């Protein structure tokens, strides 16, 4: 049984695999466009825009283009000014991790999106997942400098919203579902090549509910440019909360670099955990993604993650490298195969046994 599973994974990695087409920052890098081109949420993620669903995904991203009849039938608007969407992901994982199931199916995602367009500027957005994770916010767009205001529960805009939530900069900093959303207000503006957001939220980082009376501030901003054959972006993100028992902050640079069919996206964050009284810890986390577009709908991808929870002492560190081949086989059907290896440099606070994992994923999106 184990050999059969390994064979299935190997075949998938070598031949029939796919891409995640949810919040995919490398598409933003390749097109040198902002997340709002493809997503109803201006800061990215979740429901796709009508432009993305009806044209960009089927015409320019998918391997197999649909017939004109199918294209005409793609209509996420179920009524006037009411739009729907969905993301469905099922994983099969095979691993030698001693602390996890070695063979397991996992329902990673099951989200249904609704967007009610009340008028030209005001909308109500709802995203309900299969867990307690959800987003529900009002959005007022069309303000000066291409700006907007968002109020409700949402995932704060911070660095790259990688589609793989296990990327260390998402998981270690508390942006991992179902505890990645927070309640508050967000202001964003995107004049020209600049794109930035500032949020004030409850500060329930890593938790479902807020457990104190303090607020947190979140900032992210990125500027996109082009130099000869190279596309680039440089930005910075920051998070700070004065907690009742401890203060927490994180921040650092992020960006991308593209050249022809190659794309690199990276983020580096320092984070500070400062409890009341003496002592604090300063950690370092980074995530990087490299991709090569073989042909429309087919990509190679490699990743590198590193985490040191306290770089001032010998607390240990963790790193992960991965790679695979990806294909968006049809406009709304994606499959994926990945191989990843995690290594530990054992210390006082962080230790473990090295392990590898092979992952197959089916992703249905609309």
Description:
With 366 residues, this protein is mainly beta. It has one domain (2-365): Porin, CATH 2.40.160. It has five helices and 17 strands. The chain has helices spanning 2-14, 25-31, 50-61, 68-73, 168-171, and strands at residues 77-79, 82-95, 103-117, 122-128, 134-143, 147-154, 182-189, 194-201, 216-227, 230-241, 246-259, 262-275, 281-295, 298-308, 317-330, 333-345, 355-365. A 16-stranded antiparallel barrel has the order 2-3-4-5-6-7-8-9-10-11-12-13-14-15-16-17. A hairpin with a 2-residue loop joins strand 15 and strand 16. The chain is globular. It starts with a helix and ends with a strand. 38% of the residues are buried. The model is unreliable at 1-22 (pLDDT under 50).
Provide the fold topology.
Layout lengths: L1 H13 L10 H7 L18 H12 L6 H6 L3 E3 L2 E14 L7 E15 L4 E7 L5 E10 L3 E8 L13 H4 L10 E8 L4 E8 L14 E12 L2 E12 L4 E14 L2 E14 L5 E15 L2 E11 L8 E14 L2 E13 L9 E11 L1
Antiparallel strand pairs: 1-2, 2-3, 2-17, 3-4, 4-5, 5-6, 6-7, 7-8, 8-9, 9-10, 10-11, 11-12, 12-13, 13-14, 14-15, 15-16, 16-17
Key words describing this protein structure:
366 residues; globular; mainly beta; Porin
């Amino acid at each position: 049984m184990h050999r059969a599973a390994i064979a299935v994974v190997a075949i998938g990695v070598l031949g029939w695999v796919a891409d995640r087409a949810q919040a995919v920052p490398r598409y933003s890098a390749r097109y040198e466009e902002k997340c709002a081109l493809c997503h109803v949420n201006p800061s990215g993620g979740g429901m796709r825009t009508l432009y993305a669903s009806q044209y960009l995904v089927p015409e320019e991203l998918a391997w197999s283009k649909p017939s004109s009849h199918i294209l005409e039938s793609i209509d996420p608007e179920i009524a006037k000014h009411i739009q729907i969407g969905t993301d469905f992901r099922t994983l099969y994982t095979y691993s030698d991790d001693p602390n996890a199931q070695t063979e397991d199916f996992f329902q990673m995602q099951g989200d249904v999106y609704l967007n009610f367009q009340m008028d030209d500027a005001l909308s109500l957005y709802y995203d309900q997942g299969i867990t307690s994770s959800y987003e529900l916010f009002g959005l007022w767009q069309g303000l000066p400098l291409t700006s907007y205001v968002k109020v409700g529960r949402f995932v704060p805009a911070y660095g790259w919203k990688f589609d793989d939530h296990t990327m260390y900069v998402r998981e270690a900093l508390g942006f991992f579902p179902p505890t990645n959303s927070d309640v508050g207000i967000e202001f964003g503006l995107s004049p020209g090549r600049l794109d930035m957001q500032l949020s004030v939220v409850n500060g329930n980082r890593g938790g479902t509910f807020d457990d104190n009376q303090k607020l947190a501030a979140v900032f992210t901003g990125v500027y996109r440019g082009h130099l000869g054959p190279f596309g680039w972006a440089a930005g910075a993100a920051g998070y700070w909360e004065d907690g009742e028992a401890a203060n927490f902050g994180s921040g650092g640079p992020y960006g991308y670099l593209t050249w022809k069919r190659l794309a690199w996206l990276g983020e580096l964050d320092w984070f500070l955990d400062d409890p009341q009284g003496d002592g604090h810890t300063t950690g370092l986390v980074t995530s990087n993604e490299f991709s090569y577009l073989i042909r429309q709908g087919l990509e190679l991808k490699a990743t590198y993650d590193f985490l040191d929870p306290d770089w001032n002492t010998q607390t240990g560190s963790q790193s992960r490298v991965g790679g695979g081949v990806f294909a968006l086989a049809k406009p709304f059907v994606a499959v994926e195969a990945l191989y990843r290896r995690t290594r530990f440099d054992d210390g006082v606070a962080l230790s473990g046994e090295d392990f590898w994992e092979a992952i197959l994923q089916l992703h249905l999106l609309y």
